[in-house]
Design a protein that fits this description.
With about 450 residues, this protein is an alpha/beta fold. It folds into 2 domains: about 190 residues, Rossmann fold (3-Layer(aba) Sandwich); about 210 residues, Rossmann fold (3-Layer(aba) Sandwich). About 35% of the residues lie in helices and about 20% in strands. It has 12 helices and 17 strands. The strands form 3 sheets. Strands 1-9-8-10-11-12-16-17 form an 8-stranded mixed sheet. A 6-stranded mixed sheet has the order 2-4-3-5-6-7, with helices on both faces. Helix 10 packs across helix 11. The longest helix has 20 residues.
Length: about 450
């Protein structure tokens, strides 16, 4: 790797600038919506076999992920209702506001007052580790359905924590493989990175660079930029990227942040002749809606679930069921929440309603779970070393597609990597845990 260059962090006084030029269609679901704070789904408390307490953002910029997670839970419960021997699950959902202190209060309340034996959800990678710590202390299981920092499953590993959506390691391992293949074709050498200045952004960069190193990819790092989460104005960062003259920009911005960045970068001409890649969340449905029908050339995107990939009966059924229930097409958060509820149901179905925590952990460690995002011939599985789900990942580019309105483009021209290619080798897990051990001991 070559010399390091411009690094720009969040604490900047930046004036709002409206750029002239093409305007992206506003993404659906980004506005804050009035939603009842607490939602109960599934069986009544008096007859439920198990109570699950789920934490999602239901208001603010991340509200679409909470709303779609609830939709995914509804699809899972509807699927289970058609089975004769399915367990009766009571699902309690509340708004964690993407704030650690509030999430901890809710999680504790779920356990103390609702009798929850399992927690699920959490969108923010900054909130999830604290919830995982609480779950471990209180002797309950935590099924992560959306947050992605690989540190939660590697350095911060807890026996009772499992994650059922792609994490930053698997997404960036796929991205590194794509970049290696593209370098062999194009000879690119200059790369820039932009990610929010919190857990998800920093771990995404760590996972990308470590995988590039493992693959022997040589490159020059020309800019690494850290805007704050929910940054309204990216003009200073766009200028820094332009001045660094990258051939590839990798973004770990997600949701409304990525859409806001695109809305400002496109009319500023940043993407002319440059590849912009977002391997973790950039291919999410809300981003594709925002691109309208004229996305810029050079976008390389992926996500934790795609409405049009894989083209299997199981994925089509999930997407259509969600649309029938919610009146819109799902973002990736929906499939993550669906996976979480199905993982809990299959565990209870196998072990019985009185299964204790240790038996549930032992079962989940070796869980194989057919999911909508599994290509034909593959099944998602839990890695017993990390408790992270192992799944295939597809990377594509926007192409015209009117099948999922209001989106006018979907991803296509896919490059697909198997789950076995994307999980961290045991020695990497051991090295990262060993390196973090002194820090963990000091914290105690």
């Amino acid at each position: 790797m070559g010399r390091r260059s411009a690094r720009l962090s969040a604490p900047l006084a930046i004036a709002w600038v409206f750029a002239a030029g093409p305007v992206l269609v506003a993404p659906i679901g980004m506005a804050s919506q009035a939603v009842a704070a607490r939602i109960e789904l599934g069986a009544a408390a008096t007859v439920a076999d198990l109570t699950v307490g789920c934490l999602f953002p239901m208001t603010g910029r991340g509200a679409i992920y909470g709303r779609d997670s609830v939709g995914g839970i509804r699809v899972a419960l509807a699927d289970l209702a058609r089975e004769d021997q399915a367990p009766r699950l009571r699902i309690v959902v509340d708004d964690d506001h993407s704030k650690t202190s509030y999430a901890l209060h809710l999680a504790d309340d779920f356990i103390r007052h609702d009798g929850a034996r399992v927690l699920c959800g959490v969108v923010s990678s900054g909130v999830a580790p604290a919830v995982a710590d609480l779950a471990e202390r209180r002797g309950v299981i935590f099924i992560g359905t959306d947050h992605a920092s690989s540190r939660t499953a590697i350095e911060g590993f807890h026996r009772g924590y499992f994650r059922v959506s792609n994490d930053t390691y698997s997404s960036m391992a796929a991205g590194a493989r794509w970049l290696a293949d593209f370098q062999a074709k194009s000879g690119w050498g200059r790369i820039a990175f932009i990610g929010a200045d919190y857990e998800h952004g920093h771990v995404s960069w760590l996972d990308l660079t470590s995988n590039l190193k493992r693959l022997g990819v040589r490159y020059q790092e020309v800019a690494v930029l850290w805007p704050k989460l929910y940054e309204p104005d990216y003009s200073a960062y766009i200028e820094a990227l332009r001045n660094s003259r990258p051939e590839i920009i990798v973004s770990a911005l997600w949701g409304g942040d990525f859409v806001a960045f695109l809305r400002q970068a496109i009319p500023a001409g940043l993407l002319q002749g440059i590849r912009l890649a977002s391997f973790d969340t950039g291919g999410n449905y809300d981003t594709l809606v925002a691109l309208g029908d004229h996305p810029p050339a050079g976008l390389v995107l992926s996500s934790r679930h795609h409405d049009n990939w894989p083209p299997t009966a199981r994925n089509r059924a999930f997407v259509e069921a969600f649309h029938a229930l919610e009146g819109r097409y799902p973002t990736y958060a929906a499939e993550g929440a669906y996976a979480g509820i199905m993982a809990i149901a299959r565990t209870l179905q196998a072990l019985g309603r009185d299964a204790d925590r240790e038996a549930m952990i032992a079962f989940l460690e070796h869980l194989h779970l057919p999911l909508p995002e599994d290509p034909d011939g593959t099944v998602s599985r839990i890695n017993p070393l990390t408790h992270q789900i192992v799944q295939a990942q597809a990377i594509g580019e926007p192409v015209a597609n009117d099948d999922f309105p209001p989106a006018r483009v979907m991803l296509g021209n896919w490059t697909v990597y198997s789950g076995d290619q994307l999980e961290p080798p045991p020695q990497v897990v051991e090295q990262r845990r060993a390196a973090a051990a002194p820090e963990s001991e000091a914290a105690r």
